[in-house]
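Per-residue structure
===
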Amino acid sequence: MAKKAVCIMSGGMDSTLAAYMLRAQGYEIVAVHFNYDQRTQQKELESFRAITARLGTGQTYEIDLDFFAAIGASALTDRSIDVPTGGIEAGVPVTYVPFRNGIFLSIAAAIAEKEGASVIGIGVVEEDSSGYPDCREAYIEAMQRAVNLGTRDETQLTIAMPLVHLKKEQIVAEALAYDVPLELTWSCYSDEAAACGVCDSCRLRLKGFELAGIPDPIPYRVKNGVS
């Protein structure tokens, strides 16, 4: 029986690379995507479908979560809160979605138990996480302990976070090494036709490509401060 990894995949560069790395380790990838009424929901779903078709996943799940919009409190799900465009600031930014990764991991754990998987893959990056508390290594480790306490004794899941200590330029380099289709990935928080180039996520991505000395293949409305 093939060993399986349930990979949480947003359609972004980080989670895509994490899935490719686990596939290289011999895992059959079970891909999970969440639609949670985020601003770029349709583009992220389009990216997820294109990436998983290229990756060759064993099974895919597209999970709709409508309660994040009801909760609000994040610029990603509440249209009354503007997505910041002035650069990354200290502290937890308004683009943080309350306990998002905890909820994603809980659902992924249920899928992993059903699928007989041994690993959950997530593309969290601690250093370049924009200050999100649910991207910290210690938090993911705590979630792993909680998941294993709340599932069957024989389940024994490992939450793999292969990117957690990498810088963005290292992620770009690793993505090229694993032949990740970067042109299919999407990182922008606010726009779907062309990436805005000025939100925190775009800034981190563009900086990573710049430091890696590689052009970013996706379209931008503003790139390096130029329209």
